[in-house]
Every structure is written in C-alpha cells, then in structure tokens.
Specification:
alpha+beta, two-stranded antiparallel ribbon, 9 strands, Gyrase A, domain 2, five-stranded mixed sheet, 33% helix, 289 residues, globular
Length: 289
C-alpha cells in the first residue's frame, strides 16, 4: 500500500504498488474503475531488463494439463512439472541470447525489450475507490491462477491497512514523502506525485531522487496529452464541487456526495480534471482531428 486515504464522507481511495506477471497486465487493464500506470518496456534500459529476467524471471508455480475451455485443469505430475519448468527456463535463456544480439546492433530498448516480456514481472501503480468487482472476479477459483493470487493479496492488504483521514482541500498524493510538504507548494507536490506515478518509482530510471525531474516529467507528459499519471492524485469532493456541470448523480432530487463520480473515482476529484482538454487532446492541437 503506497497511499491510503479516506474522505470526510467515508469514501476510501487506495493506491497500491502491484508486482505481477507481465502477461496478466492486459486482464488488469480491462477493469476500468482502476487508474494505473506501469513500468514501460520502452523506458527501462535493456541491460537492466536482461539482468532482471536472468536473475528473477517469471516462472509458473504450477503447470496444468491442457484441456478445452478456460477453466483451470488438474496439475501435471511432478516429473512433468520439473521438465516443463526446465523447458521454460531454457526458452528464457535463448531469448536473452537473441536480445543481446539485438543490443549489439544498437536496436532500441522499446523493441528489444519486447522479446523479454513473457519472462518478466511487471510493476504497476493502481489507484481506485472501487475494488470489490475486480476482487470478486479475479480472487475466484475460475480466474487465471496468477491473477487470482495477486487479487487475493490486494484484497488482504485492503483489510490490513488503516487509511488516513483527509479533510476537504487535502490531497491524496502517492509517492510523496511527508517532509516534502514543507519544501514544495501544493501545485508542485501534485506534479511531483504525477511524475513518480508515471515512473512507478520514487527515483528516476538513473536511480536518483530528483523532485525537479519529477515535475519536469509530469509537465512533459501533460504537454503531450498523456494524462493517466494525473489520475492518482485526488482530493475529497466538496459541496462546491456539486455545482460542476459534468458531475452526475444517481438521484438528481437528492444529490449526495457519496453518489458523485469524478472520472472513475467515487467521491474524489482527480488532478487530471484540472488540466484543460484532458479528455480530448485534439482540442489542444493547432489542427484539430
């Protein structure tokens, strides 16, 4: 749990850092109530990726017998399990060798790293007010076993951690240190958080902690129309926010803050919504699409 907050209305907003097999990322992305940013194969140096895949590759804990449909079948016998793991790691080693050859040709990391993805773990930053649907679907016996394991861990940490109470005007700012509130303005802190969420790390890819680099990265992303890192920062919706025309209520006769959404969050105002044309970048271009 990276940041965990609860609004005056009792609505919880949680940000988790989740490490998962790379191949289930597509399934995670089907859950639209989750705001997420994940480590990019286009950004991480190839040498670093090679080292990670060599030292800490993804390996199925259990290989299952092939069958029709999507339901999980019975595990293969122990001797076959061992042979399957051996073949998986042999394939990993072959791929590493091919990526090293591409590296010698000076092929970009955004291309060479793609071959490594089946053997990678992926780190993602995920923020949401609504977790129950995802957990109900994925922490289920019929789910992909690897996703089931991750969803169960997410469910458990939500039960374990006590969120911090925020007041109106206070912000949920993942990856911002407490002492930084005394060093930077609120506007700077929002962009610092956004830059770090984009990178999914407190530090730069060079291993340095540089708040100014975080601010610059966030501004560059905004100028390029990449708004997802600005979805993780949010403040509790207030009564004044109810006057905003794009907020919808379940019951117009009795509008209640608990029933008000901003983007994919319930009862929280996302930083992203403060950026002009955040929903349609073409409106910011000289020649609109």
């Amino acid at each position: 749990m990276v940041c965990d907050s609860v609004s005056p209305q009792g609505i919880r907003l949680s940000t988790m850092e989740v490490k998962m097999p790379r191949f289930i990322l597509a399934e995670v992305n089907t859950h639209r109530q989750l705001s997420r940013n994940s480590a990019s194969s286009r950004a991480i140096p190839v040498a670093k990726m090679l080292k990670t895949v060599h030292e800490e590759p993804f390996l199925f804990e259990t290989f299952f017998r092939n069958q029709k449909g999507m339901a999980v079948s019975e595990p293969l016998p122990a001797d076959v399990q061992e042979e399957a793991q051996k073949i998986w790691l042999e394939t990993r080693d072959l791929v590493i060798g091919q990526v090293e050859k591409l590296l010698q040709l000076d092929v970009s990391k955004g291309q060479a790293n793609r071959l490594l993805e089946p053997f990678m773990f992926q780190t993602a930053l995920i923020t949401a007010t609504d977790w129950s649907n995802m957990i109900a679907l994925r922490a289920h016996q019929d789910a992909q076993p690897e996703f089931q394991h991750v969803a169960e861990m997410m469910r458990d940490i939500l039960k374990m951690v006590e969120p911090q109470q925020l007041k109106y005007g206070e912000w949920h700012l993942p990856l911002v240190h407490p002492w930084e509130f005394d060093e930077f303005s609120l506007e700077e802190l929002r962009f610092i958080s956004a830059g770090r969420c984009a990178r999914v790390s407190y530090v730069t890819h060079g291993g340095e902690r540089d708040p100014q680099a975080d601010i610059t990265l966030a501004h560059n992303l905004v100028s390029g129309g990449h708004m997802s890192p600005l979805e993780h920062q949010a403040r509790p919706l207030s009564d004044e926010d109810l006057e905003l025309p794009w907020l919808a209520y379940k019951d117009p006769k009795e509008p209640q803050i608990q029933e008000t959404r901003c983007g994919n969050f319930l009862g929280w105002f996302q930083f992203r919504r403060m950026i002009p044309n955040e929903a349609d970048f073409s409106l910011s271009l000289p020649d609109q699409l």
